[in-house]
Amino acid sequence: MAEQQPAAIYLKDYQVPNFLIDKTELTFDLDETQTIVTSRLHIRRNPDSDQQTSALVLDGGEDVTLIAVAIDGYTLPKEEYRFQDDKLVITATPESFVLTCETLIEPQNNTRLEGLYRSSSMFCTQCEAEGFRHITYYLDRPDVMSVFTTTIIADANRYPVMLSNGNEVERGTTEEGKTFVTWHDPFKKPAYLFALVAGNLEVLNDTFTTMSGREVKLQIFTEQHNIDKVDFAMDSLKRSMKWDEEVYGREYDLDIFMIVAVDDFNMGAMENKGLNIFNSSCLLASPETTTDDAYLRVEAVVAHEYFHNWSGNRVTCRDWFQLSLKEGFTVFRDQSFSADMHSDVVKRVEDVSFLKTTQFAEDAGPMAHPIRPASFIEISNFYTLTIYEKGAEVVRMIHTLLGEEGFRKGSDLYFERHDGQAVTCDDFVQAMEDANGVDLSQFKRWYSQAGTPRLTVTDQYDQATQTYQLTIKQETPATPNQPTKLALHIPVKVGLVGSDNQALAFTYEGEQSDEVVLQVNDHEQTFVFENVAELPVPSLLRGFSAPVKLQYDYSTEQLLQLMSGDPDGFNRWSAAQELAVNELTALIVQAQKKQALSTDTHLIEGFKALLADKTLDPAMVALILALPSQAYLAEVSEQIDPHAIKAARKHLREVIAKALVSEFKGLYQDNTVAQAYQPSAEQIAKRSLKNAALGYWLASGSDEAKAAAVRQYRQADNMTDQFAALNCAVHFDLPEADELLAAFFEQWQHEALVVNKWLMLSAAREQEQGLDTVKALMQHPNFDIKNPNKLRAVIGGLGQNVSAFHNLDGSGYAFLADQIILLDKRNPQIASRLCTPLTRWQRMVPALSELMKGQLERIAQQDLSKDVYEVVSKSLA
Ligand code: B3K
Ligand code: ZN
User: Fold this and answer.
1) Superfamily (CATH) of domain 310-539
2) Whose CA is nearest to atom 8 of ligand 1?
3) Which is the closest atom of ligand 1 to the Cα of 129?
4) What pLDDT was estimated at residue 2?
5) Beta bridge partners of 461
6) Mind listing the pLDDT tens digit for each residue in 37-74?
7) In testing the pocket of ligand 1, which one of 113, 128, 385 has its CB within 8 Å of the most ligand atoms?
């Protein structure tokens, strides 16, 4: 590792800034070889700081070259400033002054994709979290909020579109004949929300009239060849704007809202004030090129970034430890929006399934951290599933505890009290408490305690007194630096189901009901239900009312009963999953012992009952039919054996498929959509069930199914059906697989986002020499190491390829480590993300565990970025 190891910074060391910047005036002279940035910062000492004589220390980057710096027009000679690490230190300053700073940067050589960089032929920015310091020297921290005016100068032939935050206020020609455009954003904001775009772009224009009657101009910009794919995003934006008015009373504030799509982007999208920048994969959509899942993602991400205008921009974070303040809340908001647009149960199942698969794994690994971390080495590593998804669950629990109306009172108070401020998670909870007159002090432990709590539930029924008791124990496992855990306040929503599959009424705390939210807040508690007419089956943690692992000893019969009869749709899915996990766990053990796999599966019975119930949403049926994923089974395994998991899943699927072959064929035929493609809830549901049925039908080995899959591929008029058929052809290794994969590439080679799907599927294909295929893909002309989407496609595909990635000769892990080491020099954020599979090494079966650890140790010996250093060192600690 590097001689000097990067140090952690701590929440407990937070101090208010010593200086404030009231106004920020920026001029960008954009050019392909060198870009000059001139800043005029109106700075004054912060009266709230207790260090009134400290030096001015501005954040910078190794890629920023200072040309000149002046205070109130006086150019500082070299002796009057110095550099310390990447920071610019000016010892003597007046109380209040204008600092002018001229810097040179090279966006064309910026491979980290943070700060100002080039994607295709355009200039664009990504400043969250600490990218602005790669543009110019600044107080690059979210509690320094400033009013920005930005002038962009460029050659208008190559860059006819020049955008920044706020409203365009001036436009003209410079003495050199270049064009300049000036933007002014009246809302003060931290530098992480700054954005600039310049390029030759097409635009889709629209308008939205806000609830107070103001007309807002809406614009979506893309490169010319993509402008026909933004109608859905525009529609999603307008629906998001309306939803935020109706559900949260939040109105848009500027006169214009712009979104720009870029191809090279480290993550999904960015909520810059008035100028969102999107990874094109989260914005572009057309029936021919985009699957239903991707449509839903576009809708959700557009909503998410728009919702940040209030939860993030108008009220922002005091420091990066508070990241979940904006991210957890905004994810909760976008989840609620999508639920309202489609089906709330389906959406809940999808979100919970994702959380339990990915966040639970993170929370059980070496990078486990609370939703408000106490320390970090590199903030970019903390844009995690915990901050986002668990953070959203914590907000959802507050919603459950306060109810719809109480939550709205709390959010109104929060926005009103803190508008224009940079605040903390405590401020958020305080507003919820104050608006409702409740005490959430114990609840707040969710913000500081990491790890997934385990609830162990036992019960007792007394026929004579008609009393039913639930005893709930809670325990949170130790996580790094948190050996002991306190009891959390956990809302557990419970109903009772009777033998006739009906909700069983009961009296709880003197009130008659058929559903109750139990307030679990101690290590062990007993809850008493009275007037319970018969021995019930408890339906626990309905709607996944808390992000916990639930342990209740359900019999197979009880699970089958809940699966077919629980009035709570979410728990029907949950029961099916549990039944499947139980059966798969037994099969995994057999596979590990090299025994012949055999199961007497009860899922067949459950699925039969499910398919007979015609009242169910087809999307729900598809979700219940889906066996737990390879990744989820890994998460619930004591020791992860990917090969045994794969074999077990395959076996169970085949057994079910063979038993219900005519049902699956029928489902396949009955769920064909005759109308033209629409990304509507109804059509999406039918397609998902049809394609789930196709998978099972194929798993039965039916030749008719094989012919149907190939026919579906050839006849499909939309990407969902086309890709589902291709996926099946590849997965079931149909004789046509090679031909169809080649045809697919041929057809879509000019659509970058579709090529990514091809790359991923090709990399995930389980074949002998699978790793060679992956290596060849990385040399393919349509691959581009600079493009994070393509990297994620190939490396992500490899991650799903059990035989290649988890090869017992260690070649898969070694290849990943090679890529991480190489990429770390180019783009540390992406390199660090790629480390995730290796961080699970301690959970793997010994043979694989040692191999993974060996690769982590090899990475650790390199000279690493802070990003990769943090993940690797914590994983090996
Ligand atoms: N706030 C951005 C994430 C920025 C990540 C920087 N490494 C997108 C979002 O959550 O909306
Ligand atoms: Zn966000």
Assistant:
1) Neutral Protease Domain 2 (1.10.390.10)
2) 270
3) 6
4) 46
5) 468
6) 999 999 999 999 999 999 999 999 999 999 999 999 99
7) 128
